Amino acid sequence: MDSPAASAYPGGMSEPTTPMAIALQEARRAAEAGEVPVGAAVVDAGGRVIARAHNRVEAPPDPTGHAEILALRDAARILGTPRLVDCDLVVTLEPCAMCAQAIAHARIRRLVFGAYDPKGGGVEHGARVFAQPTCHHRPEVVGGVQEREAAALLKSFFAARR
Ligand code: ZN
Fold first, then answer.
1. The model's pTM
2. Computed from CA positions of residues 55, 58, 60, 66, in that sequence, does the dihedral angle turn out positive or negative?
3. Cα of 122 from ligand 1 centre, angstroms
């Protein structure tokens, strides 16, 4: 555990306070439910986490049930608008192309993600959605936040399934 935020929550029993710590807690809940451990949180202009979600693909079942999509839906419902202009999205893994496009549609101000995803990512890899001329909103992007912790969750999840 190399990050201060990780050591602040020994055993994961304390209530996390930073948006990424909340997203990581959601990712752990996903793993417990047999879902790929990805968690997300939407933060409003005042810095409050207004929505949080983890992957729910297998159980519903729902091929679009990625953490980012579910968190954006909740935030839009809570704020009563599909345009989350002053909100940030924090997610443990680089979003796929589907989620990146949804983030653009939602007019998210800043995207913060944990681990980079060379195989499935659509922001810094693959489709690079925000760099396309057909993308009409490009959020500020900050990658690699608590990257090792987010990546370790994914690694142990897939190792256990082999
Ligand atoms: Zn996605």
1. 0.90
2. positive
3. 9
